Amino acid sequence: MKKTILYRGSILMLISVVLLLSFVTANGSFLDETGRSSPLKNKADKAVYELQNAVQQIYELYKDSVVYISTEKTVKLRYYHPFFNDPFFRDFFKPGQNMPDTMKQKGLGTGFIISSDGYICTNHHVIANMDSVTVKVRNREYNAKIIGSDALTDIALLKIDGDNNFQPVYFGNSDMVKIGSMAIAIGNPFGLERTITTGIVSATGRDEVDPMGNAHIQTDASINPGNSGGPLINIDGEVIGVNRMIYSQTGGNMGIGFAIPINKAKEMLVQLKTHGKIPRGYLGVEISPLTDDFAKQLGLSSNEGALVGSVLPKSPAHNAGLKIEDVVIKIDNEKIKDHRDLFNIISKTPIGKTLKLTVWRQKSEKNFWVTIKERP
Fold first, then answer.
1. Which domains does the chain have, with CATH numbers?
2. What is the pTM of this model?
């Protein structure tokens, strides 16, 4: 009886295996049916394939030139809670014993190698006030030294030490960038390493997005948090900008990103390498908005000019005699339209040079001579 049961069980098992094999075979032939070539394969316009190949070649060219930057900073914790007003809870929850009094704040960004001996360009805001900066190249991590950094242009220069065989990028000419040109971004959005996105140059010379009036290249190539400091590249494989910021109502990409033109960045990088900072002229005033109504009260025909909101003690402006509610309308006979014109002229003026400021005061023009000092 037992033998019969075993025999029947073996028959059932054999039948199951045969059915299973038949199922796999049937599904295999079904999938084989989908292995046919698409009738559209290689039928697209040749230019499309050329563009696709160009993007792929750019990625291969720069995969070891675009770097991953991670930062770390120790911050002190402050505790705010009604319980802490009670002596018992204040003694029990004492920071450093029962509760931590510090924490590690981490950040990330992107940079790109600009010389074979390990100099790297990134944004100031990526590395500002950080205790340590780590750069990842070819899956190897390096401790980076901050050579110099400039908050006003948002450019920073880093240095890593290695075998002097790093792969630098190729620089383009941002003055030649045209609206509608291809734009390619490579970076680490949200920590996703070496992500490439494509788009076009949407606009050039966007200075209204920067309080200091620095011009930017606008692009719709997808840029997100983590892309900061990465390169914006043209179709020739040349870096034309340093990706800096996005316009967003959600915190994510909305098709409006901005890059610092590479020609401007190169000027800053040279000075950062030489001086560790950007020497700038300094006037010593704070500028207030000049509204149409207030311009009329002052007797001006328009709201053009830079309205002095305050004068810093012992500054060049203070020494020259400028006062609150003065409106700077000319510098060396060059018309000043707004605070950005004022800042650009003063910041580019050599330290120690004397300028003639034409000021509107008490409904008439007055001239003052200011000797420019270096910005503190």
1. 62-159 (2.40.10.10), 174-275 (2.40.10.10), 281-374 (2.30.42.10)
2. 0.79
